[in-house]
Amino acid sequence: MSEKFLGATQIRQLASSLDLSPTKKWGQNFVIDPNTVRRIVDVSGVTADDDVIEIGPGLGSLTVGLLSAANSVVAVEIDERLATQLPKTILELDKDLAQKLIVLNADALKLADLPTQATKLVANLPYNISVPVILHFLEKFPSIREVLVMVQAEVGERLAAGPGSKIYGVPSVKARFYGEVTQVATISRQIFWPVPNVDSVLVRIIRHQESPDLAMKQQLFSVVDAAFSQRRKTLRSALSSFLGGSARVDAVLAHAGVNSGLRGEQLDIDAFLAISKAAQQVK
C-alpha cells in the first residue's frame, strides 16, 4: 500500500474547520512535517503483522503513517472533537486505511481494555502525561512488546538515563521494570504546530522477554520512590522511615547484598528488585 501523509497546510485547515486552538491542558502540539512522520514509522519497525495503539492522535498526522504500515491502529483521543473528526479525515484520504482504524474517545490513563491485542505502542505523547501513560500501558497491556514514543527531551533523557547519571531517577527505574530503554533520536521543535519551547526525543522500550513479577511492582515502586525522595541521602537514611528504622534497613540491605552507603542513583533495576524482595522476606 502506498504511503499517505498529511502536510502542514492540511493540518491547519483541519484545525480551522474545527475552530480548534491547540490547548496546553491536553498538551496539544501537532506534528506537521511528513518527513518526521515517515521517520517515526520507519524507526518503529511497524509492519502488517502489528496491531498498534496510538495515544493522542490529534489531527491524525502520525495516525495516517501508522495505518499505511500496520495491520490496524487503535487511536485513543481524549478530545471529543478530535476523536469525532479523525475517522472522517482518514476516510476522505483513503477508504482502505479507514477500515483499519478504531478511535476511542477516552482518557488513556483510565483505559482498562483494548479492542485488539496491540503489539506496539507508537505515539507523540502529550508532555504532561507521558511517563504515567507509558507505565500504565506497559502494566495493563502485556501484549505490547515494544514502545516508541516522542516525548519532551528532558523526559526522554530521564527515561533513558542509566545508573550514575545525574538525571537517572524514578522514571528511569520504573520503565526498566518492564523493558530495555533507549533514546534513539532527537526531534526538532520546529516540526510541531504550535512550536513548543523544547525539543523532543524518540524513546524506545523493548519489553523483557520474561514477564515482570507484577506482584512485586507495588513494593518495588515504593522502594524506588523512597530511595529517590532524598537523592543526596544514602540508602540507609533514605529508606529508614519506609522500612521501619535503621536496624531493619541494615538487615534488608544486607540480605539484598546492597551497600547501605550507596545512593539510589547508583543502583540498577536488579539492585532495586533485590531490595524489594528482601523487604518482603526480612521481618
Report on the structure:
- By secondary structure, the protein is α/β, with parallel strands linked by helices.
- Helices cover 44% and strands 17% of the residues.
- It is built from 13 helices and 9 strands.
- It has helices at residues 8-17, 34-44, 61-69, 80-93, 95-98, 130-140, 153-160, 170-178, 214-229, 235-238, 240-243, 246-256, 269-281, and strands at 30-31, 51-55, 72-77, 101-105, 120-124, 146-152, 179-187, 192-193, 200-207.
- The strands form 2 sheets. Strands 4-3-2-5-6-9-7 form a 7-stranded mixed β-sheet, sandwiched between helices.
- Helix 12 (246-256) crosses helix 13.
- The longest helix is centred in the C-terminal third of the chain and has 16 residues, at 214-229.
- The protein is elongated, with a radius of gyration of 21 Å.
- The model has no long low-confidence stretch (mean pLDDT 91).
Ends distance:
61 Å
How many strands, which pairing sense, and closed or not: the largest β-sheet?
A: 7 strands, mixed
Mean pLDDT: 91
Strand order of the largest sheet: 4-3-2-5-6-9-7
> How many domains make up the 3D coordinates?
2
Low-confidence stretches: none
CATH topology of the largest domain: Rossmann fold
Give the radius of gyration: 21 Å
- The number of helices is 13
- Report the top-level CATH class of the largest domain: Alpha Beta
What key attributes describe this structure?
single chain, 283 residues, alpha/beta, Rossmann fold, Helicase, Ruva Protein, domain 3, seven-stranded mixed sheet, two-stranded antiparallel ribbon, elongated
